[in-house]
Specification:
two-stranded antiparallel ribbon, Histone-like_DNA-bd_CS, 43% helix, IHF-like_DNA-bd_dom_sf, DNA condensation, HU Protein, Chain A, alpha+beta, 5 strands, DNA binding, 3-stranded antiparallel β-sheet, single chain
Length: 91
């Protein structure tokens, strides 16, 4: 499912116009992004938790030359599904 499909599904289920559903989805994405940027977690009970994780610097290998390279430390986003989501997917 792509973003336009998601907007259509939200509009149908919440009885909103597609424009309103698109604005609501964009607002949700913006709020989650801002919270993660500020190293906060976003928990949606029953659905899951979005959180920021740090990756340490490490030594990697260039697959073309086999030469060792340094990979810088970075932050990434993780999602831990909630119990209700896990149960729904496994039914």
């Amino acid at each position: 499912m792509r973003k336009p499909d998601l907007v259509n599904a939200i509009a149908d289920q919440a009885d909103l116009t597609k424009d309103e559903a698109g604005k609501a989805l964009n607002a949700l994405i913006d709020v989650i992004t801002k919270a993660l940027k500020e190293e906060d977690t976003v928990s949606l009970v029953g659905f899951g938790t979005f959180l920021q994780r740090s990756r340490a610097a490490r030594t990697g290998k260039n697959p073309q030359t086999g030469e060792a390279i340094q990979i810088a430390a970075s932050n990434t986003v993780a999602f831990k599904p909630g119990k209700a989501l896990k149960d729904a997917v496994n039914d």
